[in-house]
Structures are given as C-alpha cells and as structure tokens.
Write a structure and sequence with these properties.
78 residues; mainly alpha; 3 helices; 79% helix
C-alpha cells in the first residue's frame, strides 16, 4: 500500500468514525447518556488525528473533563 492510499483510507475511516459517534449520541435518551464523556473523548481523538483546529478537539476534551468532574463530584457526595 502506498502512502497516498493509506492517507486516503485513514481520512475515510476517521470520517466514518466521526459520523458513527455523532449518530450514536443522537440515538440515546437523557437517562442512557451516562457515558457521554466517552463519546466526547472519541470525537476529540478523531478531531486531533484529523489535524483539525485545536479549538475543536480541545472543546471535546473540555466536555470530557466537565462530565467526569460532574459524575465524580456527585458520587463523592453520596
């Protein structure tokens, strides 16, 4: 496999992954959204690997931190 083919396949797979994670998040109800942080983490990784603007993947990582902080603070108070 040459480099151009690999680059095209990589880009295609990242686009498919992004689409799947976004579709998965739109299919879940509020009660099922316990692992929303994971979807934002994966979207951040996809954005980072796609060499997108750092604002985009940092947004997702910030959401991850916010969700995890919310979950752990809630669990610690019980």
């Amino acid at each position: 496999m040459d480099l151009d083919t690999f680059t095209d396949l990589r880009s295609e797979m990242l686009d498919k992954s992004r689409f799947c994670y976004k579709e998965a998040s739109s299919c879940q109800s509020e009660e099922e959204f316990e692992e929303e942080w994971l979807q934002h983490y994966m979207l951040g990784k996809i954005s980072e690997k796609s060499a997108e603007n750092p604002d985009k993947f940092l947004y997702h990582y910030q959401k991850v931190a916010s969700f995890l902080l919310q979950v752990y603070c809630t669990n610690l108070s019980h």
